[in-house]
Amino acid sequence: MTIDYIDSQLLELLQRNGRMAQIELAAEVGLSQPAVAERMRKLEQEGLISGYAAQVDAHKLGKDITAFIGVSIEHPRYFDSFTKKILGLSDVLECHRVAGDYSYLLKVKTENTVSLDRFIAELLRTIPGVTRSSTTIVLSSAKESTFVEPPTKGKQSHSTRSGKTTASRDREAA
């Protein structure tokens, strides 16, 4: 699916505020609400929008430790079973098959170092094929984001609800 500038704007707006009403989105991009609803339906159908979720504060939920764990797998024949097992572990937020020193890189959030140790010793290292792991504990985070910059090819100027064009608003923000 090729997306145009308005689709790009919708993707940006929805990533910044997934609860934004379609009528508000319509005002921002200069279309009618039904036109925005149809564009959103197409973006969802094509998989460009894969879901909507609230961003929560892990610390307020008692998850005070963030760790990145590099995992070495003995042989590629174990990849599928490893992935299936990892998908069932709620402390694993991300799982990436990577090139380099490890087979996979995990992002884990857990309560404390005791629960992290238990996760590694009792869950991770018991998965068939896992030969080694290396853990890095996050001390602080300068940036954590799920925002993906949509392409702006063919950028046009559209009036927004504030009366400013999106191009002038973008210049002011820069």
Written overview of the protein:
The protein has 174 residues and is α+β, with helices and mostly antiparallel strands. The protein has 2 domains: 1-55, Arc Repressor Mutant, subunit A, CATH 1.10.10; 59-137, Alpha-Beta Plaits (2-Layer Sandwich). Helix content is 35%, strand content 17%. It is built from 6 helices and 4 strands. It is elongated, with a radius of gyration of 21 Å.
Topology:
Blueprint: H1 5-16, H2 22-29, H3 33-45, E1 65-73, H4 79-87, E2 92-97, E3 104-110, H5 113-123, E4 130-137, H6 166-173
Antiparallel strand pairs: 1-3, 1-4, 2-3
- The N- to C-terminal Cα distance equals 29 Å
Structural class: alpha+beta
Sketch the major β-sheet: 4 strands, antiparallel
Number of helices: 6
Would you count the extended β strands for me? Answer: 4
In N-to-C order, the SSE pattern is HHHEHEEHEH
